[in-house]
Every structure is written in C-alpha cells, then in structure tokens.
Design goal:
Keywords: Disulfide bond, Membrane, Sushi, Transmembrane, Transmembrane helix. The protein is α+β, with helices and mostly antiparallel strands. It has two domains: 227 residues, no CATH class; 51 residues, Complement Module, domain 1, CATH 2.10.70.10. 13% of the residues lie in helices and 32% in strands. It has a seven-stranded antiparallel sheet with strand order 2-6-5-13-12-18-10, with no helix packed on it. A hairpin with a 3-residue loop joins β5 and β6. The protein is elongated and about 155 Å long.
Length: 386
C-alpha cells in the first residue's frame, strides 16, 4: 500500500518486484471516507473544456518491472482534477477526492490456469474480426475474462493497458481525443470495440499525467485471455489469508485437518480432502470427497468397516452310504452322454460332398483300379471257358 497525494505529481511509479509481466493487476484507490475505486487503462475525455466540469480518475499501466499511474491534473480552470469524482449528471452534489491510498495486487497464474489466450495487432485500417470465438463454453462465474492492450510504439512501448467494460464518450469533438478498447463477453465469445481513425487505442495526454511524456497509439497488440478463477497456486501452502489497509500486513493461518475417520486414510490437496479405506476395510458408500469453505470442512457419513468374511450362509447336508451311492449314480446318469446323440456319430453315417480336385482324382484312381482288377478276373475266367 502507498499513500499518494497527486497534487504536483504528473505520474507515479510503483515497482512490483515480480521480475516479469504479471498476468493480472488491480490498482485500488481507497478514499479518505473509506470508499474504494479502481484505476483503469482507458481515457474517454482529454481535458476540461468548460467551467464547472470535472475530469477525475487514475490511468494505470504496467511493464515487467513497475506499475505506472497517471492521475488527472490541473488544467485550464481552477480545481477541475481529482482521483475520483461524481458530477455532470452522474450524481449530486459533486463528490470528489484529490488523494487516495493506493493498494496494488498482481497475479502470475500457472500456465495450466490460462485456458485461452489470443493476441492480434488491432487498430483503424487493420482487418481483424472484432468477435473472438472461445473454445468454451466457459462458466462466467468461475473464470476471469481479460482484454489487455500493449503499446507497440511511443514513449510507453511495451506497457500493458487494461481495456474497459463500458464507454462514457462517443469520441466526438466535444470530448476531444480518446484512447480505449471496450469489450464485452459471454460464455462463448468476446467482442471488442475501438475508435476509428480520428482516435486511439492507447492515449496518455491532456489532463492525464499533466506534463508527463504523452502516448497516442492508433494500433496496439490486443490480447484476450480466459483464466480459471478457482486455482490454487503451488508453493503457497494451504492458508486462509486476511489483510488490512493500514499497513498491508498479511496474516495466514493453515487450513485445519479434516475430521479423522476410523480405519480410513485422508489425502488433503488445497481445500479438498479425499477419504479411502485402509487395507482390509470396506466403505459404506458415503461421500468420500469433502471441501473446506474457508471456515470449516464439509461433513460426511463416509466410514470404513470390516467386511463380512462369509456373506453366504448354508445348512449342512448329511447322507448315509446307500443314499450317497444313489446320488452318485444319478449324477453320472445325468452327466453321461449317449454316443448316438453326438454330432460326430451323426456325421459318420452320412457322406459329405468334397469339392476339392484332389478328392476327385483319388476317386477316379480308385474306380480305374477296381475296373482293371475286375477286367483281369473276367479275362481269366473267359480263357478257361474257351
């Protein structure tokens, strides 16, 4: 946390000390009355153009080493700036703050938690579809949908600016230059909108960071990400954390062990516990997976008991010798098979047609031999008669 008074300051750099680009950054502004707002990455109004108007807010972007904040600064009229205000039809009376405590949160997700990522160079004159289909559907309650614009030129090249979910300007001359990417999404697609040729995807100038180097990018590298929001990062332990705004001290308390179940093993991973029965014991079929909700473990009726060693019952049967011999004869009779009822016996009574040429040759040879033998015997008998 950092207490910041933006009077006389064109921009503020806050090192994040991560050493690489975070995947997700939130900059919260806590007002003196304890209301909390957030910095954003878009500009919808360049400066105050008439007396009594206000331009308030903080623009945020980051790179691999720091987070930079550009507050709204004093312009043409007295006191038209602030880190937060509500006016011009958004609320009455005018509600404004010129200083705030800054609270920065940055995340680097595991690659397996980033379920979708697509980057395109976008801008006026570049033909890229504004609709990005997702491989989903993704449940919008358990995923984070991000759209980020990275500057590819200018004084803030490689800085990442967050897109906005709504627009408060139509880009007309009344508002002068704007710089924004606006997006909306559902579980199946993300839609993008950005200004035409007269405006920018990224803009720093006018009352924003008054006196700081300016940025006006008509093209940018726009990335769409879908991140799993139910992740447990490895290496952080299983802890429930709390913090306060005063000193940014974070206290962590380990998640308590789940209730012990007799004759069962418990495997805990993150906020999940899985019960399995020890060797020699059987489950009753109760719920074996329970979850920790931040305050207590779920209850379960799961238990493990020794299984019945003999699930089947029978009554003993006692026979005398005569009865036993009769039973054996009856069993042999029931198990024996009459040979005349077998298929082998039935096949032996009939001739099967054999279409093989070799079978025909054997038959012809047999007929020839029988004919010759019969002829020789006949000739011998005829010679005796003559």
């Amino acid at each position: 946390m950092r207490d910041c008074s933006f009077v006389g300051t064109s921009y503020i750099d806050i090192p994040h000390n991560i050493g690489y680009y975070p995947d997700y950054v939130i900059v919260q502004l806590k007002m003196p009355d304890n209301f909390i707002s957030e910095a954003q990455g878009t500009v919808f109004k360049k400066r105050v153009l008439n007396h009594g108007s206000k331009v308030c807010g903080v623009i945020m972007a980051y790179d691999g080493s720091k987070i930079r904040l550009w507050p709204s600064k004093k312009g043409n009229y007295d006191d038209p700036y602030g880190v937060f205000c509500v006016s011009d039809g958004w609320g009455t009376p005018i509600f404004k703050h010129t200083s705030a405590s800054v609270y920065v949160q940055a995340w680097k997700f595991s690659p397996s938690d980033i379920l979708f990522s697509r980057t395109d160079t976008r801008g006026s004159g570049i033909s890229v579809s504004p609709t990005i289909p997702l491989p989903g559907p993704f449940d919008i309650d358990s995923h984070i949908f991000l759209v980020q614009s990275q500057a590819i030129d200018g004084n803030y090249a490689n800085y990442v600016f967050e897109a906005a979910g709504s627009a408060i300007s139509d880009g007309s001359a009344f508002f002068e230059e704007i710089g924004a990417v606006v997006y909306a999404y559902n579980e199946n697609e993300v839609n993008l909108w950005y200004p035409g040729s007269g405006n920018y995807l990224i803009y720093i100038g006018g009352t924003w960071g008054y006196g700081a180097p300016t940025q006006a990018s008509k093209t940018a590298s726009v990335t769409v990400k879908v991140i799993k929001a139910t992740s447990t990062l490895p290496g952080c332990g299983n802890s429930v954390c709390s913090s306060d705004w005063n000193n940014l001290n974070v206290s962590c308390s380990p998640i308590p062990h789940p209730n012990k179940i007799e004759n069962a093993h418990s495997f805990v991973m993150g906020n999940t516990s899985v019960y399995t029965c020890m060797s020699g014991y059987a489950s009753n079929g109760g719920e074996s997976v329970i979850f920790y909700d931040g305050t207590q473990w779920e209850t379960t009726d799961f238990n493990c008991t020794v299984p019945d060693p003999c699930p089947y019952t029978s009554s003993p049967m006692i026979y005398n010798l005569t009865t036993l011999q009769e039973k054996v004869i009856e069993m042999k009779k029931n198990l024996s098979v009459d040979i005349k009822n077998t298929s082998a016996y039935r096949r032996s009574l009939t001739c099967a047609l054999d279409q093989r040429p070799s079978s025909a040759y054997v038959g012809y040879l047999g007929i020839t031999i029988l004919t010759l033998m019969g002829g020789l015997l006949l000739c011998a008998d005829l010679s005796d008669l003559l």
